[in-house]
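Form 7-S
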Amino acid sequence: MLKGRPHQREDLLFQLRSRSPHELWLVIVDASASTRRHNALSDAKGLLAQLFDDAYRQRARLALLTASGRAPHWQVQGLKASKDLRHWLDGLGAGGGTPLSQALHEAAHWLEQRQRRLPAEQQRLLLITDGRLKTLPALAPLYCPTLLIDIERGPIRLGRARDLATLLNAGYQHLDVHTP
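Output:
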């Protein structure tokens, strides 16, 4: 009895593993002071928690970039999604300016470099912002499917997030009508 072990060379079967290409989800979170208004960022955290769980279940890789203060900050760059992101999410606060245009430029450059290194990887971008920018940045659309989630709330809405989505050739959805 072989018990699954080969006796001779012909008993070995070599099979190529068919692996589907990895997915990369790049999430840019606008955590500027304006996102504190009307619990916008707090409610967006619920969406992010669901997104992190989905990425974990689907074995997607995550990149996470926050835009607050003076410069954007990378939290995670292309790692497998893990439950450790919950700790980061619990501590996420809002404050400072909105370096969103800088974050978008940095993300575009990073995605381009990564695409050259991993051409089979399927990239997606999720941008969570209230769109409260002084001026819209001069950006070209990114070369991956992009969705902008508008978290602007309150009685007076500027609606710049929709304009930003158009500029980026991105899908647009408001947080209040988003169903995960």
